[in-house]
Amino acid sequence: MQQVNAAEAAALAERILYEVKRIVVGQDHFLERVLVALIAQGHLLVEGVPGLAKTLTVKTLAATLRGSYRRIQFTPDLVPADLVGTRVFKQRSGDFTTQLGPVFANLLLADEINRAPAKVQSALLEVMQERQVTIAGETHAVPRPFIVMATQNPIENEGTYALPEAQVDRFLMKVLVDYPQPEEEMVIVQRAIAEPVAVQAVAGMEQLAALQHQRREVYADPGLIQYAVRLVDATRRPARHGLAELAPQLDFGASPRASIALVESAQALALLRGRDYALPEDVAELAPDVLRHRLVPSYEALAAGITADALVAEVLARVPAPEAVLREAR
């Protein structure tokens, strides 16, 4: 496997972002989180109204990385075989062959994921967690690396299904995509009416695998890990952390996957920024994206207009970060 250090990883990430930004205007936060998810080998749930370049971003990124890309438009009539594949009878030869579905790609875009029924969600759950699918008793591994980017429309609920909590918890982050600024939208319109720009591949799957391997080498001090665990524990047992007033506003807190996701995402963000060590600031910056979809606000909180983001902000404000962390193992 190709080896990279922190400086080389940051330079490679910068080249990838530069190429994507030749096509996608603005959305800096979203683009950075997409790269964090890729490097941390986690799936990403994206929520935003139609027309905010969610599909274009994933497609452009796949071309930039020379990776295979598939898009599945989730609809209520979708069945599991439409995702994972099925057995097909060949009349000429008189036997069955396996026809693999569109999940066999490096980057899978699950568009409007909450429009598919429970059976389809269960099929996607296996491939998200195990990186494999089972068809007629045979196991087939998906390509590596494998990342699911799923989108949701927050303003249209007709014909949608609530995602199972077990599936939501398997998304590394949930990112909210907002409307562009007027000056950005001006550039978007200008690019739309001009000749399309050809995307150049600046990296390959081997280089992405090297980034993912290097992420594991980013140093995470025990104090930083303890900080991530305290943040997550404060969503489960607020009174233990001096946040007793939050207890009636939270039905369920985040699972241990959230603690792991916070540290892994912080390592990936540190690598993107040219460091071989993670800081508490990395954890705090990523906490809203990692925690918002894992919290279940109570009816009391919802009635008062208190969102999961507001609860995360309160936890961040009240749980102290470590004053200093080591930047390398002693």
TrEMBL record:
CDD domains xrefs: AAA
Keyword list, A-Z: ATP-binding, Nucleotide-binding
Source organism of this protein record: Derxia gummosa DSM 723
Full protein name: AAA family ATPase
Gene3D superfamilies: Magnesium chelatase subunit I, C-Terminal domain (1.10.8.80), P-loop containing nucleotide triphosphate hydrolases (3.40.50.300)
MF terms in GO: ATP binding; ATP hydrolysis activity
Domain ChlI/MoxR AAA lid: 248-314
DNA-binding listed as a keyword: no
A family per Pfam: AAA_3
Highest taxon of the lineage: Bacteria
InterPro entries: ATPase_AAA-3, CbbQ/NirQ/NorQ/GpvN, ChlI/MoxR_AAA_lid, P-loop_NTPase
Family affiliation: Belongs to the MoxR family.
ATPase AAA-3 domain mapped to chain residues: 43-173
